[in-house]
Amino acid sequence: MTALVLGPHLRHVSHHTATIWVETDRPCEVRVVNREHGVDAGARTFTAHGHHYAVVEIEGLEPGARIPYEVVADGETVWPESGSGFPPSQIRTLDASGDLRISFGSCRRSPGSVEQFGYDALAALSDRLRTGGDSVEWPDVLLMVGDQIYADELTDEMRAFIRSRRGPGDLPVEEVADYEEYTYLYKLAWHDDPAVRWLLSTVPTFTIFDDHDIRDDWNTSYAWRQEIWSQPWWRARITGGIGSYWIYQHLGNLSPGERASDPVYRAVRKASDETGDAGAVLDAFAERADKEPASTRWSYAHDWGGVRLIVVDSRCSRLLTADRRGMLDDEEFAWLDGQCQGGMDHLLIASSLPYLLPRTIHHAESWNEAVAGGAWGKTAAKLGEKIRQAADLEHWAAFDESFRALAADVVAVGRGERGPAPASISFLSGDIHYSYLARVTRPDTESKISQIVCSPLRNPLAGLFRWANRIAYTGVARGPFRALAKLARVPVPPLRWRLTDGPWFDNAIATVELSGRDCRVRWETPRDGGALAEMGGAQITG
């Protein structure tokens, strides 16, 4: 009998469509059914590196649909699992009212004990939804903004799997080696906790990667890339990481139309049908995506009523050459520039890396970029590069040209220069392992511009780093680091902002609530026992 290896995952939804993603243990025909509601959609699996996947698209649904579903593989029901104790998974389309709730966060370690990583915010959300009854407000979308897996901070379970398949003298067990090992990371993250597995089957989920999805400090700088590609093991590592991300995360971010027009998707399906396995095609695509960032777009945008969500790839699409550096390559930034338009009630720009950091850290990173770029000479540049990699100075502030270009875009939108100004322009980010709200105070715009950070879902910051970030948050060192940046000839930032709420260092999930021209955010943390409790909240507009 065919079995599910991973999934089902409810991925891209609109008002009339939904996508279900699964991995099975053999090639088969996968169907998603609820005949009472007229749902019966199917897809044949495709195969890559011996793994079998199906993406099932359901169309013609009503807005606000809540339809329980089953997954059938070659005529046998494989979901829901008998005796699971969980409510039926549902297909959940967006509501016609235009109201929208987006829950988001980043940085989730799994598996692991409560003593190691604390209570899991995703598991806590799952428990609330399945036990809370009709009074519970469900998120319309779950957005995970990076570090869904940790390919470089391995658990005992992952080390055991690596030892079971490697020979003596192979890479050390602290390094994931290839596609097969990445697939096991996804299994550990999304299968072994029944509460999280059920959550992903019934709440529409969107994602974007950050460094740990591939490797710590991924694409920090041109020097980093030169060094990593000199390693004989890197090709298998990067092709495995990017290829698995494309299948396990990226495909589900796309609408049915976008997926159908994706040449890589067509090529993978064709190779799978003709040769039985599309692994070679996937590897070639992944290697090119890393070496030629402009060849692939991982960013995406969706319009839902009066809301535009832009999810920006701030990792794989970086411009890193001997002469230029940018958070995005030229093609990717031109795309982002085109997406930053008015005419919406709310514009959301999700980036795994915060756009607006505490200003002390912003000045430190902009100073470091200038020094590493030669502002203080070659000797200081070498030291600056060492500091950059050691301290993870790689956020938007460390790509000053990109920071300024995006500032110009959002200010133009906020002033109504690209159509009617939205009520709010909000950056949604994670990465830094604490949560806060920052508000732009200058220049004046019709739109309220803010940075909302929620991190971690489950990976709290260690004590020393927490202490250092608390100091940065207070602004004690802001003046000295701004002075250093000035000495390195870094211009004054084009925006001024202040942190108004937070920081909170606990595991957390945030929810942005959008209704008409109103925007509100709240952060919740799993307390003792794992139940979610409000940690903070703020009115953005209204």
From TrEMBL:
PhoD-like phosphatase metallophosphatase domain residues are 139-440
Q: Which InterPro entries match?
A: DUF7800, Metallo-depent_PP-like, PhoD-like_MPP, PhoD-like_sf
Species, as recorded: Actinomadura hallensis
**Pfam family of the protein (one):** DUF7800
Q: Where is the DUF7800 domain?
A: 1-91
SUPFAM superfamilies documented for this protein: Metallo-dependent phosphatases (SSF56300)
Name the chain's protein.
PhoD-like phosphatase
